[in-house]
Amino acid sequence: MIATSIRMLAQKGEDVVAYIASYKDLAMSEMKRTGLPAAIKLAQGIHETEAGKSDLVKKSNNHFGIKCKSAWAGGKVFHDDDARGECFRSYNRPEDSYMDHSDFLKNSQRYAFLFDLDPTDYEGWAFGLKKAGYATNVRYSQVLIRIIKEYNLQDYTLIAMGKLPGSDPLLVSASSMLPSPKKLDKAVFDDPAGETVIEPTYPSGQFIINNTKVIYARANTAWLSIAEQFNIPMSRLWDFNDLENDDDILQKGQLIYLQRKRKVGASEFHIVQNKESLYDICQLEGIRYESLLELNYLKGNMQPATGEKLYLQSNGPSRPVLISEQQNRMKSGSTYAAVGSLTHPQEYTTHLVSTKETLYSISKKYGVDREKIIEWNSLDDMNLKIGQSLIIYQR
């Protein structure tokens, strides 16, 4: 169930990004024409059309759920909404829907007060739309605000106002802009201590990983200088990078995210490299730390062995083999077969704990000692949880 939900979330995210790519220019053009913030228009379009996938938009090009009303003389379709068979406006092109939505708000007395707001005040606009009766959903304002924050839609408002350059690479999908950081060349330079440092070369300034703004900062960079440069409170900057707090100065060069990372990765999985920590992987892939743990049945104190596959978009079939497990097996004299740079036991079974199962009943089922199950899975005690993944090695 969890895996299905995460796959659906990943697909929905892809649909939203595709919708933004298709209609961002139209939203900015309408903002310049009428003053309706591009962020608000895009968020409403995404929500009202289910990111371009709703039945209504497919049969009517109606991106904003505007109903016919008595004054409407254009095309019509009938669709079940608050009541069965309601009349909705139909358009020949999406552009017509975008223009009519702007005019509908601009020329209505109910919404006139919104155009007195600062166009960058998307929260004021979101709550104002709900107050004026645009939607019946009691959480309509919160939905729009969440979409704007999650997909950085405020940037399009700022571009339309001339406060951000229109060619800003922040708004380009990572897949079309950058090679994978894992494939980038290396740069060699001397750090302030006089030691030679080899690190990946990233674009200077801001760029994108997994649709999230990021920079690369070298060792000895002050957190405060980053926070001040990008006008982000230090506490939020640490939060964006999965840190509760940190030293004042970066101890090593690293990727620094300027927005909250995504819950799923752009790639399907990641192969653990030598000396690569879970935190390193989160930063490299632009995925939240807690999401990586959840998708792979891991806890924060666990370290997967080199060569293990970590899943980034859906739950993996089982927890990856840990370094500690690998070392314990080698100490116990288990038989291994070489696989690349990693050694694995020849055969094992993954067992998912079900209701009322205990270590004793599982050990009897597989004909192994309880102590071995504890050792193989680095268990701290005898307690098991329903759905927990256990590795059982065959004799």
Characterization of this structure:
The protein has 395 residues and is an alpha+beta fold. Mean pLDDT is 79; it is low at 1-11, 167-198 and 334-346. The chain starts with a helix and ends with a strand. The chain has helices at 2-34, 38-49, 55-60, 94-106, 122-131, 140-150, 154-160, 174-177, 223-229, 234-240, 278-285, 289-295, 323-331, 359-366, 370-376, and strands spanning 75-79, 86-90, 186-190, 196-200, 207-209, 212-217, 254-257, 269-271, 309-311, 336-339, 342-345, 348-352, 389-393. The longest helix is centred in the N-terminal third of the chain and has 33 residues, at 2-34. It has 15 helices and 13 strands. A three-stranded antiparallel beta sheet has the order 5-6-7. A two-stranded antiparallel sheet has the order 1-2.
What is the ordering of alpha helices and beta strands? HHHEEHHHHHEEEEHHEEHHEHEEEHHE
The count of helical stretches stands at 15
Question: What is Rg?
Answer: 26 Å
Overall geometry? globular
User: How many extended strands?
Assistant: 13
Summarize model confidence as the mean pLDDT.
79
Query: How far apart lie the N and C ends?
Result: 33 Å
Strand-pairing-aware structural class: alpha+beta
Strand order of the largest sheet: 5-6-7
The largest sheet, given as strand count, sense and whether it forms a barrel, is:
3 strands, antiparallel
Which stretches of 5+ consecutive residues score pLDDT under 50?
1-11, 167-198, 334-346
Q: Approximately how much beta-strand content do the residues carry?
A: 5-15%
Portion of residues within helices? 25-40%
